[in-house]
Amino acid sequence: MTIDHIAKIIFGRLTIGSFPVHEPILLATFAVVGLAGLGVVGAITKFKLWGWLWREWFTTVDHKKIGIMYIILGTIMLLRGFADALMMRAQQAIAFGNEGYLPAHHFDQVFTAHGTIMIFFVAIPLVSGVINFVMPLQIGARDVAFPYLNSLSFWLTAAGAALVMASLFIGEFSTAGWLNYVPVSNLQNSPGVGPDYYLWALQIAGVGTSLSAINMVTTVIKMRAPGMTMMKMPVFCWTALCSQVLAVAIFPILTAAFALLMLDRYVGTNFFTNDLGGNPMMYWNLVWIWGHPEVYVLILPVFGIYSEVTSTFTGKRLFGYSSMVYATVVITILSYLVWLHHFFTMGSGASVNSFFGIATMVISIPTGAKIFNWLFTMYRGSIRFELPMMWVVAFMLTFVVGGMTGVLLAVPPADFVLHNSLFLVAHFHNVIIGGVVFGLFAGIEYWFPKAFGFKLDPFWGKVHFWGWVIGYWVAWTPIYIVGLMGTTRRMRYLEDPTLQPYFVIAAIGAVIILIGIVGFLIGMVVSIKNREQLKVGNDPWDGRTLEWSTTSPPPAYNYAFTPVVHDLDAWYDMKCRGYERPSGGFKPIHMPRNTGTGVILSGLAAVLGFAMIWYMWWLAALAFLGLLVVAIGHTFNYDRDYHIPAEEVARIEAGHLPPPPPPEQRPDHGPALTPAEAK
Amino acid sequence: MADKLDRQAGQEAASSPTFHLVEDEHGRGHGHGSPTMLGFWIYLMSDALIFAGLFATFGVLSTSYAGGPTPREIFELPLVALNTAILLVSSITFGFAMLAMESGKVRTVQLWMLVTGLLGAAFVGVELCEFGNLIAEGATPQRSAFLSAFFTLVSTHGLHVTLGIVWILVMLVQLQQRGVHEENKRRLMCLSMFWHFLDVIWIGVFTFVYLLGTIR
Question: Is the entire prediction scored with pTM above 0.80?
Answer without folding.
Answer: yes
